[in-house]
């Protein structure tokens, strides 16, 4: 996967790329999109975009797959500085990208906030759970690939240009306590241009520095400095001062 991923935006559909295709082909394309649920996705995206801005803005600030389960409390804040794409992401791997995976879930509890600080893509099956009075901020050009989970009880901040792979889990809370009085919830901070490999897990209290790489399957329990590569469970430094190529 690379930053070359073609994200599917609210103002562009796959078939629009073939604007010069013959009339019959175009109608076939439209019919295919309607049958595949694209029309429903646009309707749902219009609803969320209007709810966000209070009027219809083009291009739509929110583009959401119709299957996405949205649950945003009345007192919650959804802030989108540029655009949020949910449930659509075509990778260069395979012919069908990541279509057909699980539905997305976006949940923001009472008083919670989800702040999208630019253009952010959440791939199919990604679940974003922001608890009551909790805050999740995601920076410009960051993307999260299929089936990852961002679980926020207190505060999670993800910088810009981050690549978060498949099946990653970020949790700022343990949910339960081992020792009485011990802190089981602490802020997670992910810097800019961080690459988090598939099936990695980032636990409470961790800060990851700019440009760091988290290897596939790593369980990160301690801070990672800028430019480090960490791997394993618990994650240990395996390389330093790297520059990964998007
Ligand atoms: C992090 C990663 C990119 C590093 O690649 P690399 O620079 O070629 O690293 P190396 O293969 O030189 O490995 C360096 C050391 O870390 C270890 N290591 C690398 N990845 C590891 C992993 N996922 N888990 C445990 N150890 C790992 C290697 O065994 C090696 O150990 P050694 O020095 O004792 O031999 C790569 O290991 C990785 O995790 N790739 C998967 C990325 C991914 O999930 N992509 C999905 C799409 S975004």
Automatic annotation (TrEMBL):
GO terms for molecular function: transferase activity. The keyword Transferase applies. InterPro entries: Hexapep (IPR001451), Hexapep_transf_CS (IPR018357), Hexapeptide_acetyltransf (IPR051159), Trimer_LpxA-like_sf (IPR011004). Residues 1-21 are annotated as: Disordered. Keywords: Repeat, Transferase. Pfam families: Hexapep. This is Transferase family hexapeptide repeat protein. It comes from Tumebacillus permanentifrigoris.
